[in-house]
């Protein structure tokens, strides 16, 4: 879908060498790097990417919400960030923490929220307790932010 929308040079990171091999076999990525998000800096210079996505990793026991400034660091001014998280019961504390961090960055002027949309059937539930209203699925949320441009400083 990203390629269909004009994104041509896709880079990926993952904390698992096995997942990187799986991604490599898809033939979609120009570059794949081993990186544990939230524990080490992303292997990219500042303001390098037009868009940054994190799908399926922002959750309890996975990537901490403290990674947000690092995601912003590698995004170009005006660039997009697409982030997702689950809305299942075991992830609600993390989701609240994530949304507080998202809001703080918006209030600071680092980025602007373009979308926060719930997705009812995000992924299959592995237990009945995690299922949204007995559907067999977990719901989730997609957030899209745009990094604010660096303010122009007047001379003089």
From TrEMBL:
The Methyltransferase type domain, residue ranges: 3-82
Stored Pfam families: Methyltransf_11
GO MF annotations in UniProt: S-adenosylmethionine-dependent methyltransferase activity
InterPro entries: Methyltransf_11, SAM-dependent_MTases_sf
CDD domains: AdoMet_MTases
Top-rank lineage group of the source organism: Eukaryota
Protein name according to UniProt: MET27 protein
Originating species: Peucedramus taeniatus (Olive warbler)
């Amino acid at each position: 879908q990203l390629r269909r929308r004009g994104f041509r040079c896709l880079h990926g990171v993952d904390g698992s060498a096995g997942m990187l091999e799986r991604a490599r076999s898809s033939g979609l990525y120009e570059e794949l790097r081993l990186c544990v998000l939230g524990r080490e800096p992303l292997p990219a210079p500042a303001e390098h990417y037009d868009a940054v996505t994190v799908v399926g990793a922002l959750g309890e026991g996975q990537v901490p919400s403290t990674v947000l400034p690092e995601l912003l660091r590698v995004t170009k001014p005006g660039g997009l960030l697409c982030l997702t998280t689950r809305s299942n019961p075991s992830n609600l504390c993390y989701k609240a923490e994530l949304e507080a961090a998202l809001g703080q960055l918006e209030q600071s002027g680092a980025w602007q929220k373009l979308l926060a949309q719930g997705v009812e059937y995000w992924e299959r539930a592995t237990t009945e307790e995690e299922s949204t209203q007995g559907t067999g699925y977990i719901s989730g949320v997609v957030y899209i932010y745009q990094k604010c441009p660096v303010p122009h400083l007047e001379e003089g």
